Structures are given as C-alpha cells and as structure tokens.
Fold:
Amino acid sequence: MEIKIQAIHFDATEKLTQFIEKKAAKLQKTCDKITKAEFILKVVKPETAMNKETAINLSLSGKELRAAKVCDTFEEGVDLCVDSLLRQLEKYKDRH
Structure:
C-alpha cells in the first residue's frame, strides 16, 4: 500500500508521520485490497480551536472510500477518520 501524507499550511512532525503510518497499517490489516492511502492534513484558521481538518482517501480496487473530520488535534482527527473508514471497509467486505 502506498501512503501519501499531504500537510497544508504547516510541516508535519516525525511523530505525527509515525502515528499516521501506524494507523495506515491498521487499515491495511483490515483490508488487503487497499492500494493507496492519502492523508490530507490542513490547518484552517491557525488562531482558533477546532482548526485541524483531516481527510483520508483510500483507493481500493475500483472503489474510493473517504472520511473527513475537523478536530483540535490531527491525532484526534486521524483516529476518528480511521474509525469511520474501518466501518466503511467492513461494509465493503460484506458486499464483496
């Protein structure tokens, strides 16, 4: 699986990158048909709370899954998106 991390309006730390890679491995373990995982992290308004926008796009064979959340931290946003995608993957696996 190819992992792409896109940080918009900030530089992602090594710790955040490792956290994302760990979560991507969890998704990969759930479904081995994932070909690409794209993590888009964006700071919306730097001076306000709830300003971290997180989106994850998963490419499966012939299917795209997406989850997006706005939270206080990127770790929280990634956690919520991964939970949402795990539910979507379960539905996908049930259908196929």
